[in-house]
Amino acid sequence: MEKTFKFKNKVQKKIPAVVHIDNTGRVQTVEKNLNPKFYKLISEFFRLTNIPIILNTSFNVDGEPIVSSPKDAIRTFFSSGIDVLVLENFIVKKEN
User: Fold this and answer.
1) Whole-prediction pTM
2) Distance (Å, rounded) from C-alpha 76 to C-alpha 64?
3) Quick one: which H or E segment has residue 70?
4) 39, exposed or middle or buried, with CB in 10 Å at 0-12, 13-18, 19+?
C-alpha cells in the first residue's frame, strides 16, 4: 500500500470496510496505462455504485493460510460465506 489517509466522516459511512479503527485507510493507486484491466474494473464499479474504491485484502478465512492458487481459491470460496469469486476472467457465483 502506498499511502495512509484519514477518511472524512461522510466517506467513512460510505465505505466502512475500508476504514481502520483510527479512521485511516491505506491507499493504492492504479494507473490506466500500467494495469488497464484493473483500472477498467474500478471504473465500472464506480459507474455502478458511485464509489471509486475496491477493497484489496488478503484472501483467507480464519485459521487458514492465504490463498495461493486457483485450487485454494475455489476450495476457500465454497467453504466460506463468500458469495462471488472472480478468478482471472471467470466469475463464480453460489446458487441460493
Assistant:
1) 0.69
2) 9
3) helix 70-78
4) middle
Residue type, 9: N
Q: How far apart are CA 57 and CA 80, in angstroms?
A: 16
Amino acid found at 43: S
Contact 15, 49 (CB under 8 A): no
d(CA 66, CA 57): 10
Q: What is the DSSP letter of 13?
A: H
The rounded distance, in Å, linking the Cα atoms of 25 and 28 is 10
Task: Tell me which residue of 52, 53, 90 sits closest to 73, measured CA to CA.
Answer: 90
How confident is the model over 4-46, as pLDDT tens digits? 889 999 988 899 988 999 999 988 889 999 999 999 999 999 9
